[in-house]
């Protein structure tokens, strides 16, 4: 009789543990530094200002950039214990103000809105009930909308986007916090919270 009770308790514990691990869905929100995009914008701004200065004689100085970073929302689906697939949708707003060095020229403010969608794959290296050490990679597209006030330039562009994060760490059970380090359009560091259900 004792063996039956012990086996029943062990079977019940195993069933509960298996039921708790059946959370296949995960939603997440996060923030990243968008270093790749900001550096690219800085080089593009310097290049375009050099061309404008050469053609018109108006030199721009004291460029001020207001960018608070990239916000993202995402979804993951557990295929198995180590592999997840999903997608991320990210948004970044950047505002650059260029002051003219001559008195009769106007200052220019350039507003840029980026929207990026990535299909993502995530692989867990080490996974416990509280910790998940993983890597991820994503491919997709990015759309940029540029408008100037005080100038006449506007543009809409679409291009290829990617993100590779070889090091990611999630802490928590259902509700958790994560941090990822990598390279790509999101930048070097991404952090946020996620929820499994």
UniProtKB/TrEMBL annotation:
Keyword Signal attached: yes
Xref: InterPro entries: Beta-barrel_OMP (IPR027385), OMP/PagP_B-barrel (IPR011250)
Signal peptide range in chain numbering: 1-19
UniProt entry tagged with the keyword Signal: yes
Residues of the Outer membrane protein beta-barrel domain: 6-186
Alphabetized UniProt keyword annotations: Signal
Name the record gives this protein: Outer membrane protein beta-barrel domain-containing protein
Organism: Flavobacterium cupreum
